[in-house]
Amino acid sequence: MNEETHVFYRNPFTVYPVIARGEGAYLFDKKGKRYMDACGGAVVSALGHGVPKVVEALKAQLDSVEFAHTSQFTNTPQEELAELLADLSPGGLNHAYFVSGGSEAVESAIKMARAYWVQMGRPEKWMVIGREQSYHGNTLGALAAGGNRWRRALYEPMLYQRPRVSPCYCYRCPFDKDPAHCALECADDLERAILEVGPEKVSAFIAEPIVGATAGALVPHENYFRRIREICDRYDVLLIADEVMTGLGRCGTWFAIKQFGVVPDMICLAKGLAAGYVPIGATLVHNHIVDTFHNRRNVFQHGHTYMGHPLAAAAGVAVIKYMQQHKLVERSKKMGDELMSRLREALHDHPHVGDIRGRGLFCGIEFVLDRASKTPFEPELGFHRILGETAFANGLIIYPMGGTLDGRRGDHVLIAPPFVITKAQIGRLVELLVKSIDATVDRLRD
Ligand code: PLP
């Protein structure tokens, strides 16, 4: 039992080092130990730590006003941030609904989809379809839409039971197809689910453009989202792109969904939006949805106390401007290519590395017991957990995660460093990672 802490998250006895400061791609604890932040915490720190420009912008905002409620005032930073996002987002997503994090952004999107269909005179369209092996947040609505079984397990039955469809998981195709010759059966699974429950009941389909926490930077088939868009259009189902992890440059473009050639009806953002300087989330909404709320009697009935918080919005503005000024989205692509080729060079023939995947500075590695058969490690071994702990002890922070397959088995890590990472630092990252993987394998062998 840790006697010194009154903080309770997972359990009261896990002792963490105390964070002291951050600089660029590094964090330092109070004892002076240095850690390379190779996953931005939880894919949050896009700019790196301690960027003076962002800190100055936050101080300046505090000098003017710290808070004014959105039901009484608007504020300059939220207006500016909404405009910047409208300029950067795919065509037509011209409005932003600001909240305080990813789960709130997803909840807002789910409720907005439902409210939209009420506006359209179709109140029976309420159901959201999600995918297996997806994560959309930990609040009950977002958790119900997601398909991360181990996060859901304790809370079943969920408030709403919603259908979930197959993921687009080419390394382990759920339909046993070769991705080079498949007919996008995984995308057609959405049509099957819509027809099964009845299109008249389905309001939206939600998906991460590149799956993050539950499947380790799972990049979909090139044509997957085009087929999904067609199916959504055919049955009047809104498409929600959950870009909480992938958004704002992480995958080498401002929005990952742009790489797959479709425009969604809503986009959820959080993490990278203020890069960890202040909590923020946003749901970007297409004009055709916003237009239905232009009648004063038909408002979007929702809201949170801290939505549009001036400090959070000021951080978002400062982060986006810094990224534009320093061409960090382009850098995410360039350094992502460098990271990917270094990872492949170092690990392509490693007996326990099954797949290396991702886009931009959003890379995932899936570990297996046996490469040829793709057999995963037994979950009781805790491969990903031991790897995460070993890397941490070696001064490397990665994002380990399990449960990709049947909810129990599967081990992977996310590597998602800040965009300011240098080539030399990428070299060091890969070196520490390989050392940690080998030490983990040795430990499990003993
Ligand atoms: N959506 C996705 C894709 C996420 O990866 C996450 C968090 O990891 C969330 C939603 C939830 O965000 P938050 O933890 O800020 O509530």
Care to describe what's here?
It is a single chain. This protein has 446 residues and is α/β, with parallel strands linked by helices. The protein has 13 helices and 15 strands. It has a seven-stranded mixed beta sheet with strand order 4-10-9-8-7-5-6, sandwiched between helices. Strand 2 (26-29) and strand 3 (34-37) form a beta hairpin. Helix 2 runs antiparallel to helix 10, helix 3 (76-88) crosses helix 10 and helix 12 (383-393) crosses helix 13 (423-445). The longest helix is centred in the C-terminal third of the chain and has 23 residues, at 423-445. The protein starts with 18 loop residues before the first strand and ends with a helix. The model has no long low-confidence stretch (mean pLDDT 95). The site of pyridoxal-5'-phosphate has 15 residues, from helix 4. Pfam families: Aminotran_3 (PF00202). One of its GO terms (molecular function) is transaminase activity. Its cofactor is pyridoxal 5'-phosphate.
- Could you give me the name of the CATH homologous superfamily of the largest domain? Type I PLP-dependent aspartate aminotransferase-like (Major domain)
- Fraction of residues in β-strands: 15-25%
> CATH fold name of the largest domain, please?
Aspartate Aminotransferase, domain 2
CATH class of the largest domain reads: Alpha Beta
Bound molecules: pyridoxal-5'-phosphate
pLDDT averaged residue by residue = 95
Summarize the structure.
This protein is an alpha/beta fold.
